[in-house]
Amino acid sequence: MLSGLSWPAVAVLLAAGVLLDLLLGEARRYHPLVGFGNLAGAIERRMNKGGMRIGRGALGWGLAVLPLTAAAVWLCGLAGAVAHGLLLYFCIGLRSLRDHNLPIAAALRGGDLAAARELTGRIVSRDTFDASEADLAKASAESLLENGNDAVFGTLFWFAVAGGPGALLFRLANTLDAMWGYRNQRFLLFGRVAARVDDALNYVPARLTALSYVLLAPGAAGKRTAWRCWREQAPAWSSPNAGPVMASGAGALGLSLGGAARYDGEIEQRPPLGRGAPAAAGDIERAWRLVWHATLLWLMLAAVSAVSAVMTGAGVRHA
């Protein structure tokens, strides 16, 4: 373990971090990631100018991420498991996914399309001002599936690998990709390193997330559908990590996602995701349950690994 934590300690801290997140949610004031976003914005405004934009972007990434990660390593060395657990709590976003998406489903069920459009516009970058119920349900379900990896499973994976500093590094890199990783004139060069680093850090977690969605699909037929959607549809997506996650998730839910979406007034025809009916309000809740059950699966596997590590250690000592 890069963190120096034992498997039993990792399993306990993973469960504690998820529990704290569900009980407390995000800090409403002075959230560390909000402060980091302000820092990243200031760095970008100062450095994203002149020549050598890729190099400037790499330097900006290092200035934003590395000192904070180093401080996390120092803090964990000083405070031990408590610091690791608090860092995980600040980095994970499971309850945030629930709290941002389930109200969309409630608004759609209540026929309040205006409220659903406003709520959906807070979590996606596509246009929602005149979106239909199906468009809004699709946007929310896609966001849940993709951000299940970014806000939950990638964080849990890197915590298991490198403790609190690993979780923090992942979330900071993911935040920079969300802020700088656009393929437009402003960020195409400056944000290239941020996008590539996020792709690398997400590569393994995204495939484990996709596999989790496959395993949790209902019945053998549902699992086969989710697997085929992953293998056949994911390569068509420009993102090497969002494709597997959303394709397998859509297949597991028996939904047809992807397709047309409007960004800045322009219709973008995206590759298809999954197979089945178009999304409706109830499918937002189903997508949330899939993410939640995958979280429980990961915690169960961590617990099994911890018990195995304890049993193996006991056997070695007995011998």
Automatic annotation (TrEMBL):
<protein>
    <recommendedName>
        <fullName>Cobalamin biosynthesis protein CobD</fullName>
    </recommendedName>
</protein>
<feature type="transmembrane region" description="Helical">
    <location>
        <begin position="296"/>
        <end position="316"/>
    </location>
</feature>
<comment type="similarity">
    <text>Belongs to the CobD/CbiB family.</text>
</comment>
<keyword id="KW-1133">Transmembrane helix</keyword>
<dbReference type="GO" id="GO:0048472">
    <property type="term" value="F:threonine-phosphate decarboxylase activity"/>
</dbReference>
<feature type="transmembrane region" description="Helical">
    <location>
        <begin position="58"/>
        <end position="90"/>
    </location>
</feature>
<feature type="transmembrane region" description="Helical">
    <location>
        <begin position="151"/>
        <end position="173"/>
    </location>
</feature>
<keyword id="KW-0472">Membrane</keyword>
<keyword id="KW-1003">Cell membrane</keyword>
<keyword id="KW-0169">Cobalamin biosynthesis</keyword>
<comment type="pathway">
    <text>Cofactor biosynthesis; adenosylcobalamin biosynthesis.</text>
</comment>
<dbReference type="Pfam" id="PF03186">
    <property type="entry name" value="CobD_Cbib"/>
</dbReference>
<dbReference type="GO" id="GO:0009236">
    <property type="term" value="P:cobalamin biosynthetic process"/>
</dbReference>
<dbReference type="GO" id="GO:0015420">
    <property type="term" value="F:ABC-type vitamin B12 transporter activity"/>
</dbReference>
<comment type="function">
    <text>Converts cobyric acid to cobinamide by the addition of aminopropanol on the F carboxylic group.</text>
</comment>
<dbReference type="InterPro" id="IPR004485">
    <property type="entry name" value="Cobalamin_biosynth_CobD/CbiB"/>
</dbReference>
<keyword id="KW-0812">Transmembrane</keyword>
<dbReference type="GO" id="GO:0005886">
    <property type="term" value="C:plasma membrane"/>
</dbReference>
<feature type="transmembrane region" description="Helical">
    <location>
        <begin position="6"/>
        <end position="24"/>
    </location>
</feature>
